[in-house]
TrEMBL record:
The keyword Oxidoreductase does not apply. Belongs to the heat shock protein 90 family. It holds the Pfam family HSP90. One of its GO terms (molecular function) is ATP binding. This is Chaperone protein HtpG. It comes from the Bacteria. Keywords: ATP-binding, Chaperone, Cytoplasm, Nucleotide-binding, Stress response. ATP binds at residues 31, 35, 76, 81, 96-97, 167, 338. It comes from Flavobacterium caeni.
Length: 628
């Protein structure tokens, strides 16, 4: 038997590991299962190149709990270690066996999927165990070894009578970590971190129903056999080529990833690149609810099929963090605990690749089946609009597939829209005016008036639309967006015609004074307009610029500083050619004059859905009095 001290530069390495290196104790199982996987994949590689004179067979990893003895076993049938290798790899902390292996076989081992290259993964065992044993036999024809350490730098190393190839790690679980002797807890951790590991993982057994015999009697009772319970899927969909998978395979994998999600995804994007970095994965577009924050952190990041995190910001462009799915890359740099990204040029390249791939897929979906793409537009538009605002590379490609729907359910790309509108909606200065509504019901009267003139009205109702149209205007100098309720329909698209008022300048001044004395100055700016005599006498509009800046300020990331808290300001447009304008001007009874103005104002507010509460009650009461 050999005894000695572990070769570490810090005497109290174990308390350090327990306290600082791994903040989340549960990852010990991920690290140890990863090590077992590495050992198995190493054996697979060495047998494939003829260097290991042994049968690879069908190895698996087994996890066993011995609750009475407070022990947890992790057993593999991998490459194993000789006593010298235990001395080298286990006793010299941070000297990684996997790293040395990769270096030695760097040309032939390129795609073996070896995970461990930190060297400290094994020592995470001491976060939950007060004693750890390793019983291991190498694939080489050498005696087995038995290593024991109680969490101090002292260890013992002696021969073992183990005869089968591979390694068994025995954790003597500490009293403050007894939860890791519960079957439910271990099952939870295996499901979280090791659900898609490339080597089958056995944890207990389960009962399998045997097929019913053809000659079974009527009172036949189903018979069961006890089989190993394999808790992982070693060949998940993202490890296969797209040509190997049908639509149903992608749907099945989605259900495997999100067993509690009952709504099917809209479509998927299969990522598969091996140069200049290695990355595979499948992203799904889900139907997005109103609360976008709840949707985030649904993409899972793996490294060689080992779960790392579901916080993928930095790797996945932010606008795509609302999607679901899996990304797997051995080229994403992680720190020693495999849990956080480190700053690295590869990460930005990966992010750019994902952006480009998603844009290309969206374009192909649009081109191949435009009708289906239009049907899904409302469910995906917020992601795409956010992408246009936040990712220049996505914005460059988005013109080919981003849609602008009309209130009548037609869909146009921006170029199609320009062609459609140029004859009827170009103003006197040669600028194309795109009219839009944010709410079909609330702005119904304004939409109707615009359509009566033959204008197209878009329905742009996403929460970030003000930011988007601001960007589109800045990149298209010949284009302006105007909300349909921002002015009278005759003023939305300025033509050369000059309307003539029935009232003289003096009468208009008097009318304006009367109206301004009655309506609240803090809310309304009174404007006199010579409109068609059949047009509404009073019309409330909200100036496009001020409203848009306020919306941008409220939704963040734009607009004028502090405008989100400004009170709403409106224009009250009084039609000087209306019969009501003349009646208000000619009425000598001040009370009746006030009633007319208030009634007209309330009707205008009602058409804008602005009349509420006490004002609505007063309006109803006044209306009944007027029709007595």
């Amino acid at each position: 038997m050999t005894t000695g001290k572990i070769n570490v530069s810090v005497e109290n390495i174990f308390p350090l590991i327990k306290k600082f290196l791994y903040s989340d104790h549960e990852i010990f199982l991920r690290e140890l299962v990863s090590n077992a996987t590495d050992a198995t994949l190493k054996l697979k590689h060495l047998t494939s190149i003829g260097e290991a004179k042994t049968e690879y067979g069908s190895p698996r990893i087994e996890i066993k709990i011995d609750k009475d003895a407070k022990k947890l076993h992790i057993i593999d049938q991998g490459i194993g270690m000789t006593a010298d290798e235990v001395e080298k790899y286990i006793n010299q902390v941070a000297f990684s066996g996997a790293e040395e292996f990769l270096d030695k076989y760097k040309d032939s081992a390129k795609d073996t999927g070896i995970i461990g290259h930190f060297g400290l993964g094994f020592y995470s065992a001491f976060m939950v165990a007060d004693k750890v044993e390793i019983i291991t036999k190498s694939y080489k024809d050498e005696p087995a070894a038995h290593w024991t350490c109680d969490g101090s730098p002292e260890f013992t190393l002696e021969p073992s009578d183990k005869t089968d190839r591979g390694t068994e790690i025995i954790l003597h679980i500490a009293d403050d970590s007894l939860e890791f002797l519960e079957e439910s807890k271990i099952r939870e951790l295996l499901n979280k971190y090791n659900k898609f590991m490339p080597i089958p993982i056995k944890f207990g057994t389960r009962q399998n129903a045997l097929p019913k015999p053809e000659d079974a009697p009527e009172d036949y009772k189903t018979e069961y056999e006890t089989v190993d319970h394999i808790v992982n899927n070693p060949n998940p969909a993202w490890t296969k080529q797209p040509s190997e998978l049908a639509a149903e395979d992608y749907q099945s994998f989605y259900r495997e990833l999100y067993p509690m999600q009952f709504e099917e995804p809209l479509f998927h994007i299969h990522l598969n690149v091996d140069h200049p970095f290695n990355l595979t994965g499948i992203l799904y577009f889900p139907r997005l609810g109103a609360d976008l924050q709840i949707q985030k952190d649904k993409i899972q990041l793996y490294q060689n099929q080992v779960f790392v995190t579901d916080n993928v910001e930095g790797i996945v462009p932010e606008f795509l963090t609302m999607l679901k799915g899996v990304i797997d890359s051995p080229d994403i740099p992680l720190n020693v605990s495999r849990s956080y990204l480190q700053a690295d040029g590869n990460v930005k390249k990966i992010s750019n690749y994902i952006t480009r791939k998603v844009a290309d897929k969206l374009k192909s979906l649009f081109t191949e089946n435009r009708e289906d793409f239009e049907a899904k537009w409302n469910d995906i538009k917020i992601v795409l609009e956010y992408g246009m605002l936040s990712e220049p590379k996505f914005y460059e490609k988005a013109g080919a597939f981003v849609l602008y729907p009309t209130v009548d359910g037609q869909y146009f790309t921006l170029e199609e829209l320009k062609e459609k509108l140029k004859d009827n909606q170009t103003d006197k200065d040669g600028k194309l005016v795109v009219l839009y509504a944010g709410n079909k019901d609330a702005q119904h009267a304004y939409i109707d008036a615009a359509k009566a003139k033959g204008y197209e009205v878009l329905l742009l109702d996403s929460p970030i639309v003000s930011h988007l149209i601001q960007k589109l205007e800045s990149d298209n100098s010949d284009l302006t967006f105007v909300r349909v309720d921002s002015d009278h329909v005759d003023n939305l698209i300025k033509k050369d015609e000059n309307a003539v008022s029935k009232l003289s300048d003096e009468q208009q001044t008097s009318l304006k004074t009367v109206v301004e004395d009655i309506v609240p100055k803090t809310t309304y700016t009174v404007q006199l307009e010579a409109l068609d005599s059949n047009a509404a006498p009073f019309l409330i509009t909200q100036p496009e610029f001020m409203r848009r800046m306020k919306e941008m300020s409220q939704s963040g990331g734009g607009g004028m500083f502090g405008m989100g808290n400004f009170p709403d300001m409106y224009n009250l447009v009084v039609n000087t050619n209306s019969e009501l304008a003349t009646n208000i001007l000619n009425t000598e009874d001040k009370t009746h004059q006030e009633h007319l103005v208030k009634q007209a104002l309330d009707l205008a507010k009602l058409s804008q859905n602005l009349l509420k509460g006490e004002e609505l009650t007063a309006f109803v009461k006044r209306s009944f009095e007027l029709i007595k």
